[in-house]
């Protein structure tokens, strides 16, 4: 059997680039001396993206199990970077919010991300960088729209 996958397909390229950029980010976080693991840094970034999210929502956005994210959040809370606050809509749930001291750590993380992006976009002029950014924003939006109906369909499906 001589089945071959097209490694230049958009899906393969995006997946491969995501893997490579994540590995580069993890290396930079490791050597930056931030006192965080890459997983903790990614979790802190997700909290910052939507401050006040529930742990379950953060885990879903990260594609991780809630217990894994809980361990990251425990460490971030112990370092004083996040706080868990009661969710006024669900007394069993907690909202995850940034503490005041998180800002400095997020700035350090952002510097590392900028360096990864700078390395990844070597040889790109400013216009190409803007085009890539804009195209990826549309790409993400299209995928999010396509994902929503399947989630709604699962929720509406009768339980057997």
UniProtKB/TrEMBL annotation:
**The keyword Transcription regulation belongs to this UniProt entry's keyword annotation:** yes
Q: What is this protein called?
A: MarR family transcriptional regulator
Answer whether the UniProt record assigns the keyword Kinase to this protein.
Answer: no
What are its GO biological-process terms? response to stress
The segment(s) forming the HTH marR-type domain are 7-148
Q: Which GO terms describe its molecular function?
A: DNA binding; DNA-binding transcription factor activity
Q: Which PROSITE patterns match?
A: HTH_MARR_2
User: Which Pfam family, any one, appears in the UniProt record?
Assistant: MarR
Q: Which UniProt keywords apply?
A: DNA-binding, Transcription, Transcription regulation
Tell me which species this is from: Rhizobium tropici
């Amino acid at each position: 059997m001589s089945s071959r996958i097209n490694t230049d397909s958009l899906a393969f390229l995006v997946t491969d680039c995501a893997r490579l950029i994540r590995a580069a980010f993890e290396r930079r976080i490791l050597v930056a001396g931030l006192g965080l693991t890459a997983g903790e840094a990614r979790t802190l970034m997700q909290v910052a993206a939507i401050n006040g999210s529930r742990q379950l929502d953060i885990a879903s956005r990260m594609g991780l199990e809630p217990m894994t994210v809980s361990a990251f959040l425990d460490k971030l809370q112990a370092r004083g970077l996040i706080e868990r606050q009661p969710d006024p809509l669900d007394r069993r749930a907690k909202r995850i919010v940034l503490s005041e001291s998180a800002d400095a750590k997020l700035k350090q993380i952002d510097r590392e991300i900028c360096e990864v992006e700078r390395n990844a976009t070597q040889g790109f002029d400013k216009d190409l960088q803007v085009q890539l950014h804009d195209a990826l924003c549309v790409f993400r939006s299209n995928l999010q729209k396509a994902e929503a109906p399947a989630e709604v369909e699962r929720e509406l499906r009768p339980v057997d």
